[in-house]
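Q: I'm writing up a methods section and want to include an example of the input and output format. Could you take the sequence below and give the corresponding predicted structure tokens, formatted cleanly so I can copy it straight into the document?
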Amino acid sequence: MKRFAILLGHADGQLSTNKDLFRMEKFLKSDRGGAWYTSEIHSEINISLHRLSILLNQVRNNHYDYVLLYFSGHGGYKRSTVIELNPKGETVSEQFLSGLAFRQLNIFDCCRAPLQELSEESMSAISFSNRPDSCAIRKLYDKRIMSASKQQMSLYSCSIGECSYDFGAGGIFTTHFLESTNNFFGDYLLVSQAYVASCAPTLREAQVHGKTQTPDLFMAKLPVANQLIIAVNDMPCRSNEYFNY
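A: Here is the clean output for your methods example:
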């Protein structure tokens, strides 16, 4: 299976974006996350719209079987989720990032509050585990991803009209989403299961700070066997290794 992950973040000194991208990449490279190779992951902070366009064209031309796209930073909503790529204010809509592969998972940890004005110009637009069983885990991960139906799935850290929060230790949705991969039963953890497990903790943590943040998702109502997975059960017990920055 040909796979590729795009991890993007908007860092402006206000958010813990670097932590989010670090933890997500560390998770993917772990056996539990599918034992991704470094060469299969592109991680970049404050990418320009021009560079992003080139990157997406390269990804499409490579005809990957599976693409995972993750974004942490500022965003909003205007007919669809809009992400702000960098401090220059360059933005793209989620449609701009879709259709990179027949099997694609998008994870947006950003606000989705209404945008009042958005110009047409802006809209146009860890080490790999050396454990002996890592190769076997890659094969299991690949086989399970390829058995999933072709689909476009998106996770959102908050609902339309809400804001997404970061209280200094990283985005709270990303934190709880990754925590869900640390303790589950069975051979695989579905993306939908990780999403469900992260919803309540995200809601509670936001409420502690007097805020409202309700995660959301878009997915096809497929049978379990045809859904995308986020993690492989590589061992019975896990430590919180993804949260040590």
